[in-house]
Amino acid sequence: MRLRDILLAVAVMAVWGTNFVVIHEALAVLPPLLFAALRFTLAFAPAALFVKKPPVPWAQLILYGLLIGVGQFGVLFIAMDGQITPGLASLVVQMQVFMTIGLSVWLTGERLKVMQIMALLLAAGGIGVIALHIEGDTTILGLLLVLFAAASWAAGNMVARRKGDADMLGYIVWSSLAPAPVLLILALVAEGPDTVMAGIQGAGLRAWAAIVWQAVGNTLFGYGVWATLLARYPAATIAPFALLVPVFGIGASVILLGEPLPMWKLIASGMVIAGLAVGFIDTKKLARRLSRGQQG
User: Fold this and answer.
1) Domain definitions of the chain by residue range
2) CA dist., res. 122 & res. 145, Å (int)
């Protein structure tokens, strides 16, 4: 990879990782469902003027938008509203990698590789360590909600696989049209009109900056650059950069929010990140390299 593209990939991971701290700060002012509704409204409204709708059926865009907008981010924001710390949320949501593999096995008949099974067990062990140390700012409900958000992300990944050669940025922008009104309706019902109005009126520069960061930085910049890199390089070259998301997420949470980092959290993080790393190993390529090494 060119140095510029490596730096771009790391920048995207930094945006996606530190985004969990941004979410935490915005939730101090905005109720979670309203925050999610504003995020997807802003992701669609101006960008749709410049980004064409991709040539995919509306049903696919709507399904993807609901899974990602409501199922992933809506539920994630609810979990992060006092149920789980930003650092742990950035880590647990990466279980979507294994859930995506599981859905692929179920829906397409793909077979799990030995390395993938080992990776899943390792990462699941890390989640188990977190569950055994539930206390304070993290609850079992928060952990389950983030796992649900990860499952919704995985389901969205399966839907997106049917997009063909459609531009991913356009796909993200136009799919944002679906969750925005649904999230607003849910906010009015679950959080109440008074809370919604108070949230909008009380949102200062910091809250609106967080919304813009969600829509422009996390969505348009993040997904736009990521899609470009995936089109330029093999997925096996780009995908491992995702390991940096929980690293940036936990690091930012510790540095900026003072999130405690006890030994059990380091162990759990190490197990999940190691599991993700093992899952990216191409066993056939590794075997060929080892074979060539022995022959040499």
Assistant:
1) 3-295
2) 21
How distant is the alpha carbon of residue 200 from its chain centre? 25
Please give the helix or strand (H or E) that residue 256 lies within, else none.
helix 244-257
253 contacts 85 by C-beta, under 8 angstroms: yes
pLDDT in tens, 31-45: 999 999 999 999 998
Given a contact cutoff of 8 angstroms between Cβ atoms, the answer to whether 178 and 66 are in contact is: yes
Q: Residue ranges of the alpha helices (H) in 45-113? A: 58-66, 75-80, 86-92, 96-108
pTM for this model (two decimals): 0.83
How many whole angstroms separate alpha carbon 227 and alpha carbon 187? 31
Write the pLDDT tens digit of every residue in 171-211. 889 999 999 999 999 999 999 999 999 988 888 888 899 88
Quick one: average pLDDT of 143-154? Answer: 92
Owner of token pair 């993040």: 222
